[in-house]
Structures are given as C-alpha cells and as structure tokens.
Amino acid sequence: MIAIVDYNMGNLASVYNACKLLDAKADIVSNPKELIKYDRVILPGVGAFADAMDSLHKTGMYDAVKEFASSGKPMVGICLGMQLLFESSEEFGDTKGLGLVPGKVVSFDKTKMNMNEHKVPHVGWNKIFNKDSQLFDGLENPYLYFVHSFHAITDDKYVLGTTHYGYDFVSAVQKDNVYGFQPHPEKSHDNGIQILKNFINI
C-alpha cells in the first residue's frame, strides 16, 4: 500500500491517478498517525518551500514523514516534495527542511545562464542523465517534465541524476530508503510511469 501525503500542498489527484494506472493500491492520507502503516510513501508538492514546511508542521505530517523515513521503508519526494527532503532552502529567506538528505535548495544562478535561452522558472521537458539505480530500470537518460525555479545542491554520493539547464543541476537523489525527483513523474507520460512503477517494485 502506498500513502500519498496530503498536507494541503500537493497535486494529489495526478499522483493518485498515476498509481491507479499501474494498478497500485494507493491512498491519499491526511491523518499523520496512519502514515507509518503503509509500505511506501509519496511526498508530492506544489508551491513555496516555506509554506509547505509550515503546512507539514500544522498538519502533523512533519513528524510522521520523519518517522516513516526512519522506518527504512521506501519514500519518494516529487518536485517541491523532493526539495523538502533537504536541510534548508533559500526561497524567500532561509527555511529549514526535513533534513532527510544533506544539502540545501537554491535559486537558479542566472549569472551562469543565457537568459535569452533559459527562462526561470524552468518549465517543460528535459533530460535526466541518470546513474544506475533500480528507479531507472528500463530507462536511460529519460526526458521528464519539469516546473521549478529552485534546485538542490548536495554531495555527489546522493545524486542519482542531473539535468542541464544553462548548467548542470541535481534532478534526482537517494539517501538510503529516501528518494527524490525534481521533475514530475506523474506528468511525464511513459517515462514517468516507468519510474513510479520501479518505485512501487522496490
């Protein structure tokens, strides 16, 4: 059973429908006490980092997500959900994250980009140059759908994939049982569905 975390900041329907397409048993879970009962967790997210962290605390999901991560069962953060896994974000000031993956979230460095070619936010299809991982079984450097203005910085040992947009940035991570994807697998057609299928099969 998969829990899709409802903390009032996610595109829950599209994630749920993607799981349903794979015949996976998934629930949208808003009760933090129920989260630990599930086999896998998906942490979605759309919006601002600080608002999301505030909502995680107010709903009680902050402690519940941390508890689930410590259980050793697989968990994946998607888009803003991936960014929340890190220690902090500089979006609208410095805000502490879940601290499940070492590193921080920063804005795109426009001094490294040709702004005539690269707009921020980064919106659209782009390639992940992936390392070997069970999450990428059946895929090699897949195109996925991105919508974001910030990206993570972390140690290379946690990086599963990078993407080039003006410069290379981290677009997929793993620390033990915790995974993260900057793009939206649930909006990325066959490639994204394959990634979710691989996550379900871990």
Secondary-structure map:
Layout: E1 2-5, H1 12-21, E2 26-29, E3 40-43, H2 49-59, H3 61-70, E4 75-78, H4 80-84, E5 86-89, E6 95-96, E7 101-107, E8 122-127, E9 129-130, E10 143-148, E11 150-153, E12 159-164, E13 168-175, E14 178-181, H5 189-200
Parallel strand pairs: 1-2, 1-3, 3-4, 4-14, 5-7
Antiparallel strand pairs: 5-6, 7-11, 8-10, 9-12, 12-13, 13-14
Overall description:
The chain has 5 helices and 14 strands. With 202 residues, the chain is of the alpha/beta class. The longest helix has 12 residues. The model has no long low-confidence stretch (mean pLDDT 95).
Please provide a brief summary of the model.
The protein is an alpha/beta fold and 202 residues long. The protein has five helices and 14 strands.
Features:
eight-stranded mixed beta sheet; Rossmann fold; four-stranded mixed beta sheet; 202 residues; alpha/beta; globular
